[in-house]
Amino acid sequence: MSVSGDLLEVNGSRPCENGGCHVELLPAVNDDHGGVIVEMKEHIAADMFVNLLRASILQWKQQGKKGVWIKLPIELVHLVETAVKEGFGYHHAEPSYLMLVSWIPDTPNTIPANATHRVGVGAIILNDKREILVVQEKSGRFQGTGIWKIPTGVVEEGEDISIAATREVKEETGIDAEFVEVLGFRQSHKTFFEKSDLFFICMMHPLTFDIQKQELEIEAAQWIPFEEYAAQPFVQKHDLFRYINELCLAKIERGYAGFSPRPTISMFSDHPSHLYLNNHDLDKSRKKISGMNMNIFPPIFLLVAALWLSASNLDYMVLGEDSIGIMPSICQQPCHPLPPPSGYPSYGAPAPPRPPSFSGYPSYGAPPPPSLPGYPSYGGAAPPPPPRPVQANCPPAAPVQCCGQYPATNSNPYPYQPLVDDHSPNLDIPLSTTSIVTLLFSFVVLF
């Protein structure tokens, strides 16, 4: 089959322009990776095919195409030799067609390999009597060995794992079973015509119990106690079968959670697909998140912060002088003032001479001025009580003048220096019982 260049445009251009050229090309469509796909459907002679193929490849090189795929149905098998001579090779084959491919640019070939894995399933089915469904095969490596094994099979093209396991159980034993989850899977290599193998171990629940074995492939099928199956020497000898036993026991005795299918929508295909995941743990995490009302989280955070600050302030107030680096906010006892620094006249010393500029002020030793109404006079009032002992780390509290430091020489002329501590909490506040309890309460509220 051939088409003219006027009918076929690959990437919007043609080998001949201005209507002066008529070139026949192979029918092709663009793929998603910069290549073209040729699907031959009608009969064509080999000599005509090679001419069309050469002209098409020339055109595709000019257009910057990369991979060229030719799908030949089994009816056109006579074109295989022609394509191979033009540089094409086998990529894969199916019962109804052969796919050939060629990389035409002068760059490294990035054509993906054919499918690398074969996928198989094995079904573990237990009834209420703790009996497992097993079979003996008429062919294969277990033929004539008397070994009991779980039903197994290969996943067909376009078939999901859960559907394949259900189908294999029905075909081999006649038992209807419901897929539960994938307990685990094994990967091995170079097993089937050099291909790798993925084997999924599926837990299933029986819906029927009357066995109707498949006569073509199955020698025997029955329910046997799980312990009897697990005690077989062959099972005890091989790691895979021992792990299958452990998975089975973990599921039925310890609540082991496998992988269950979740329907998903893919952007790459319109066909249904499934994501296999641990539903048990996923649902628990979702419930934990949904159980927390995220709208009240900011107020709770503010409340906890306020409680924490309040507890810290309470610690600061009540720990007192027993806590290092902490000053109480209120003096428990008034402080005794420090004696005046040296260089100042002591109380009771003779009065210094008055300079002339101080005229008008009473001299030392002069009679006291008359008392104001409502105030006691100096002569008849009782003396004030003696000061109490000095306490360390005592801040000022009106009206008592608290202890300070001696003023530096030639600095403050007053006998007492004001304290600079503004009683702000120290950053090195120790964690008391109140703070620890508040912190624990915060975690309980938040989590």
Automatic annotation (TrEMBL):
Belongs to the Nudix hydrolase family. It comes from the Eukaryota. Keywords: Hydrolase, Metal-binding. This is Nudix hydrolase domain-containing protein. InterPro entries: Nudix_hydrolase, NUDIX_hydrolase-like_dom_sf, Nudix_hydrolase6-like, NUDIX_hydrolase_CS, NUDIX_hydrolase_dom, Pre-Nudix. The keyword Signal does not apply. GO terms for molecular function: ADP-ribose diphosphatase activity; metal ion binding; NAD binding; NADH pyrophosphatase activity. Residues 116-248 form the Nudix hydrolase domain.
